[in-house]
Amino acid sequence: MRTLLQHSIERLLADAVTPDLLRAAEGGAWPTDLWAKIEELGLPLAAVPEDLGGAGASWTDIFVVIRACGAAAAPTPLPEAILANSLLAAAGLESPESGPIVFAAGLADAPLAAVPWGRHARWLALHDTQAGQIALHSLARARIVPDNNVAGEPRDTVTLAAGSLVAGAATSAATDAVMLGGAMLRSAQMAGALGRLTEISADYANERVQFGRPIGKFQAVQQQLAVLATQAAAAVSASEAAFLMATPCADLVTTASAKAVSGEAAGKGAGIAHAVFGAIGFTHEHSLHFLTRRLWAWRGEYGSDAFWADRLGRTLAARGGDGLWPLVTAALCGDQDR
Amino acid sequence: MLDQFGPPVLPPGLEPLRAEVRAFLADWGSAYPAEKRALSWMGFDAEFSRALGAKGWLGLSIPREYGGHDASPFERFVVNEELLAAGAPVTAHWIADRQSAPLLLRHGTEAQKQRYLPAICAGELYFCIGMSEPASGSDLASVRTKADRQADGAWVLNGRKVWTTNADRCQAMIALVRTDPASERHAGLSQILVDLTLPGVMIRPIKDLSGHEHFNEVTFDDVRVGADALIGVEGDGWAQTTSELAFERSGPERFLSAMTLFRCLVGAVGPEPDARQAVEIGRLAAWLIALRSMSISVTAQLVSGQDPVWAASCVKDLGTGYEQDTVEVAMRLIDSLPPGPQATTTRHVLAIVQSMAPSFSLRGGTREILRGILARGLGVR
To answer: Among this protein's residues, is B323 annotated catalytic?
Structure first.
């Protein structure tokens, strides 16, 4: 399943996500064809169990899809749709047949801030933490106040219209399920973007000639590229651990680790890539910023590295020094039920 | 190259072993103080190593016919990470178990395997590694210690090794030496097993900056070893040395050297940390979990027969930086700790770990050399 998913998403995004598409998306255009192909492949329903019409893939399998979306800077809410449909499924609700779906936590009668892709989405999976309910809402008549993150991705304030409720059900999901799920998605997207940054930075270092030789011949540049690679590797492993431990809700300890590590890696990695590319990478014309601006944006969404370090630190302190190692080993354990 | 990091899956069935090691350590270490645990895998206790051998926890992945246990690298991973997390004194057997035994298994003759492996697995035979020399540090291929073949097939060694950890407390060294006097660089090197009690071997401890003596200068003055001291193929020493790097560089000792300090710090901060303390210890925990994931992922690749030497170098570079970062965090928090015995112990442990920390990114290949290797793996050269 994992290999199949990886091949289909990577082929699709390699063909579809061009610099022109990314610029158009930043200008407000919705990539109709790309989304249609994503739905044709059934990807939004990847995490939904087969008896609810989905693919029944594990989060470990889905990791490669989310990572690929990050690597390609894909201008679509596929990660959001996968999580939204999974939240619905966990509450026993059916997913809508088509149309982009995103998620939020909050109250149905209050404005919902920073809803990803709100203006383009047709559906919203809303986690009402006070009522302990997951509900599917239509966004057809919702009021949208548009806003963007630093990468130009829509992060809108959404106010649901009266009568938007399609279906709702009680959920046993943790009150911070959306925050955790969002953090898990963003950490994998950052891991993907950092992996891609590593590749293109190494390639550029071999091509760009200064002082009569490729800049990759200089140890100063080599050392920086090595740091970029190790940061990318840490983001990959940390976020993969979080996906491995999702049951199906994101797990606190590994997700906190993933978001904290990927966020820090995003800051360091984007900085190194810009140093390697120099002035050309700082231009709007060059494609580097499609990745680096997303890394900056995703680092801050669903909890910054400091936010999750604080959460993890408090969890840890409550257990004391002798609880540290058992907490770490329980984070990735082959013997627990998943 | 990032493909070398697959899913960090620990197979099921390891937890009973982990519980057994933990129970053993709890029983053994009730009176073993944090100031000794702080030495991590530089703590020496032959009696402890023999006790581990008796439990069957050394030579885990060595075949039973040589005294080992035919266990998977994952079982070895679990035993070792538990020992390291507890700060148990493992240095006596560490190099023999990690490096010498797998090397002998892979390249040794049947006689060498039968002679050395059972004693290593029993925790009775300790090895050191003879690589660095006064003029050969990072530039290892420049080693000059030579072994001249005699008419009867024996070898006579002359030269000097330095920074040899535990040479004064081990029985044997596997030395990288030049067996072809006309050779240069990576060619003409071989691995020779030297009994350190032989005439002509002089071992002089070197004090480190904190006054501890754990590394040594070892001088060979016409040291005669038999023809059977050669390990593997004459002239293949460089390839044999580098073939074990994935094992050497990805293990939990590359990120758990400062674990006792972290553990003390968490305890000393107390159950209700302020925001600064929570962020600092939480960040360390986040990276610890990430590094452990990376190390598990590399172990999984080794189990499946891959050679993830690039990924292993990643673990070592990040892991040793993480260990040094633990000292940085402790320095930032030390004056914020509520006064009491835990704060006092943390101060002592910080002083010990801080004094060792510069070596974390020197031993086993410096940070800068590793990063050069990593860049080469990315296709940059």
So the answer is: no
